[in-house]
Queue: 2 jobs
Job 1
Amino acid sequence: MTAPTTLSRPHFRFLCALLFCTGMTSLVFQIIWLRGFGIILGSTIYSMSCVITVFMLGLALGSFLMSRLLKRGRWLAEHPLAAYGSVEALVGLSALLVTWTLFTHQDFYLSLSSSPTAPLLKLLLTQFSLCAALITVPTTLMGMTLPLVSQLVADRRQVSALYGINTIGGATGSVIASFVLIYYLGCIRAGTVAAAVNGLIFCAALLASRAFPPVTAGAGEELSGGTVEATVPAEGQLLGRPLLLSLAVFSGFIALSCEITWTRFLSLCFGNRVYVTSITLALILLFMGQAARMSGALLRGPNPVWRILLKSCALTLISFAVAFLLERHALQATHPGLVVLFILVMVVFPATALGLLFPLTLAARPSRADNPASWVGLVYGVNTLASLVGSLASGYVLINLLGSNGLIAFNSALLVLTLGGLVYAFRQHLRPADHALAAAAGLGFLAVILPRSTEVPPVVDPERAVVRSEDAHGIFSVVSMGEGRLRVLNNRTDLVYLYGDPTTQYVQESQAYFPALYAPRLEKVLNIGSGYGITAGAFSRVAEVRSIDAVEIVPALVEHARLFSPGNHRYFDNPRIQVHVTDGRHFLATTPERYDIISINLSDPYLPGASSFFSREFYELTRARLRPGGVMTQHIFGPDVASLYHGIHEVFPHVKAIPAYGDGLTIIASMEPLQPHQREVFLRQYDEGRALLGPIGLKDGLAGFEKLIAVGDERLQELAARAPEFRNSDDMPSLEFRRLPGKLGLFHSNN
């Protein structure tokens, strides 16, 4: 029996529903894994890129493998829907196993990971190997699904539409994972729900498999209208197998490269919370998926594939040019309409136009393809592999060399080359409108590469910028606020409170002197989140402290540390201080050292990555890295200060505090009763404490400090009487997904 050239509407909708759910569960697992690996490998840009790279590599391997199997495996070719359902069941089981082990066997995986102080190449190889060992199997299985389902579809436009539905499912999964599943259920149970959906896909596919006969070879060479696709001879000559594969490579590379910059621009405009990341990913996938769905309608029109490709490239270039003209005003705008317009022309329109490239490649497969589904697998694999290369090259190299605007200009140059190739190849078939559009795109490219356009403008106080730099971690800015005060931002996030403000100096130096007063020994200290270096510098003023490890995740803060002198006591020149630029939690988990004091100073407990420093598992790790009687200190603040206090007290039974910023507290905690062991040292060696405490506003030295401790004791009694609203853990990251008060609580937390 020969299959029809176009799948019936009910059958097609059924496949759409299945692939929508497939895309949704894949993104749910990806978001959960990014959280889990962030704890094991460190919440750095490189470790996150490593996870995404292995994820995409698995998709490519699965697609290539299925492309080969469909050529040789008779059962697969004859029972594609049953095979698809079986693959989905295996995806659910293997992905759930990975999810469970990520959050229950962290110590084991940490023992396999390299020290964050290891050479970068060794560190990346170790991270890559660990990721590959864990997620290659489920991601390879995920990559097999689209080629299998395409075995049931003869109409090439329907294959593109299925790909679009799958992508829209991914967009939905991104939102559901953050706003619903992880928020209410936690990571492991969220993975269980996703695996259950995979199980339902298996049951539905198995039950319906008899109603979906596979498409026979060559059945899809005609479109539903009965016209042969390559109606234009020149198009038929150009859009052969080599060029279509080249287009798949091009579309994969440029889409992922642009996605890196789109994510940064959206965070610049909308905020710093985890919800912004989810919405950003969903927005990009949604419009790319919608473009794939549009491709079928475009192919029904009078325009050949090459003209649609030409328009797609040209309109993307024009969109980027308009975005660059609006950028400076949009990033500093107070009117939301201007910001929305900027996002439309910088992200939405280009994502839609570029989203057409790959679906059109799928739809325009060579007429001599012996197995349509095998061709889909090959093209999908090539596209995914190119996406991987685009992500790596852009995230590791190009954005450091060129910056966000420079990376957009680089991708615009690739679009110009493609546009020029199409214009030259089809010069005999061009219409006046095609010439005009190509010329407008050329002018747009000139606007993109203007010298002033290659640098992202400041987001705040452009006239007062002292330092501006951009790397893979973000756009780092130091802004003068007058009277010797400096504001430090990464993108739109304030990394630390104002340098030069007396409160900043008091709080951050107190995070050294407070624990130093109570620690039985003062030999070895760890400062996580060194920021300006004030706390590390304060520790260096205590002569009894012999060794200080200062850990900071933002390289630019360390590179520009001289700006924050003399407040940081020139800690960067002190031989007792060793500075490590890496993730603090990963450093603590992998170091063999034990410390007398661990001082933790993070600017915002609600930021992605930072919230893991307030989990039960982190406090247990901190406890394990302290010497007997050792002291942990941390700054807590915000609307959930009572819950934060209870989180510390559940692990450390003995807690004391002093007032900090606003209603915040600087906490010290220990497994043993807290006694001022170094009180005599403060009195004898440091002029009754005035030598250390006088410069931060406590003129009566230790006596004034002890009054603050008494105030802190009263505040702790008040917090102890209040029941915690939540308990924060790695599996249940309530703090990171907290719905903060205020209309912008989902988007901003510290500014």
Job 2
Amino acid sequence: MKTCVLLACMGLSCASWATSPDPRTTAQVELSHVRAGGSEQVSADTLRRYTFEPAANPYVRLTPPQPWRGADEWRVRLQNVMPWAVTLSIDIEGTSGAHLTAMVGLPAGPAQTLVIPLHATSPRAFGVQAGPPMPVELDGRRIVLATTVEGATALKAVRAVRLSIPAPQAEQVLLIGDADVAPGVTLHDAYAGIVDRYGQYTRGRWPEKIDSDAALRTAHARERARLADAAARGNEDNALTDAAGWFHTRKRDGRWQLVAPDGRPFFSLGVNAVVADGGRSYVQGREWMFTDLPPAKGPWHAFDGEGDSRRDTGASRGLAYNHGRWFDFYAANLYRVDGADWRRAWRTRTRQRLVAWGFNTLGNWSDEAIARGHGLAYTRSINIAGDYANVATGYDWWGRMPDPFDPRFEAATERAVAAATQGVRDDHWLLGYFADNELAWAAPGPQGRWVLAIGTLHGDPRSPAKQAFLAMLKRKYGDALRLGVAWGIGVTRWEALEPAGFQAPLPDEAHPAIAEDYSAWLRAYAERYFRTVAQALRRHDPHHLFLGGRFAVRTPEAVAACARWCDVISINVYADLPQHGMDLDRLHQLDKPVLVSEFSFGSTDRGPFGAGPVPVWNEAQRGEAYAHFLAAAAADPAIVGAHWFQYADQPVTGRLLDGENAHFGLVGITDIPFGGFVSAVRGANATASRP
């Protein structure tokens, strides 16, 4: 042990661990696969060099002589001296044995203060899905704050703190200095005053950011001139022409195609959520996050409202600031540019943009007035809602699964289809209909495929789905004892499966019948759902395409049922390439056209804090990622289109629905296009749209 202490003090490697007093913090320092070097003066700080070696979990553990007490946050001065960012994992141990854990990215650069709140928290506690980017300057201090901390509700005393780098592939060097605890104000300050009067992030800088009404109007005037030049050059070759036919599908030379009403092949290049009300964000109770919030009177009253987004869903769980007064920053900026006629001007400008940028379709949740009769296809959503039964899967991101075995579901579907087809069944510009959105057919994880079957059996005895599943099992096994043997459970009577809360087994290799029975049920469930919607749609609108159910999490059984009843399988794909986000080999076997109904790439260098499910480093890489994805989609013989999510950036403080606050947009919250990204999109679209 003494040898290890000596080696650590000399800056040599020690494979086990060593303890030595830190003379500045008086804390003991325990090392594992870390070499301790000498002290270095960095500005006003004295920091000590620690070299983290390639290992599973090299760490530095700090233990004070007496527990740190009576504070709300733990802080330490440190510096990442590598030329790249380093991921640091923090484990804080309380005197009661409770723990708090956090993970932060330490950028290269000058010394900074790492701050860890001594209680569990996340950006959702502030009404957003992603917290402010770090580091941040607060009162002249460079701060890296852990905005997500998991574990104990709060720690009143800290026994020790372990700083580790998860599995480094090469040596990583950090300089670590004094640690202490303090009253907790940093977390609040990190969110204070983060949004300006235009809805922009106050602490960021990017080329499209504006600082005055005059600058906003000037930027839009310049773009109007560019759009006029584009129209004069005839950049509308991809626009549709009026014709008496209908969109349909065909397979030619081994490749699936959409066909436009005029008979031309049509690769659907779409954009989701092309709407003027996407800038709404709750302000009630967190007015302190906004620096210049317009008053709820005068002309700004039109962009002010109230709502309630509290829901029993995974997307809403734990989200604060989810009801009350909201303000629409995007629409307010449109008013600043075009005055009282802002909505008509926005529709005209948006239509010109989409055509000039090579798009030919309005995706889901869009303003149809932009498209209908103006050279763009559009889509509609069949939103099925009612008092029918449902099935909880445990995932339930947007809500529980509708129970298609409930007769009330069939009635609700009939009403929803009638409403969706009203006034458009004879419109040749309509591409087709989606049914619902991202239903919880499955859940993430290795056993996620089976959650709908397990959730069905877990349900109430009166559940129509549960009764249908039990009837299926009774037809197969006859005797409940045979089921118990096949599933490896102690069941001898069918009544044992009926109570609410029945814990169905997970499939395993020793009992293959479990997976077989679950798979059969998933097929029956999906078959009933898609058949019900398809038959209702054919009754109300025999002309237009049924574009499927906008799958996110999904099972092979659900996709196969969709292929039998839908004209097109729609899948929301969040991956770098289509083949990395869906099983294209299996889809080719189903021999059905596929529409990528959502894809997106985000970065954090244009204001909003989130980068979405597929982040890239910066704005330039967004354009590169778009081009690579679209080229791969257009090259696949089953894929007939791809729709970008979404038109405009989400609010910095989160959209009303679920606090999502990502940089997905072709345009920002000020309706100014992101020029470099749009240029890359235009080039990629031009290539993909060629037959």
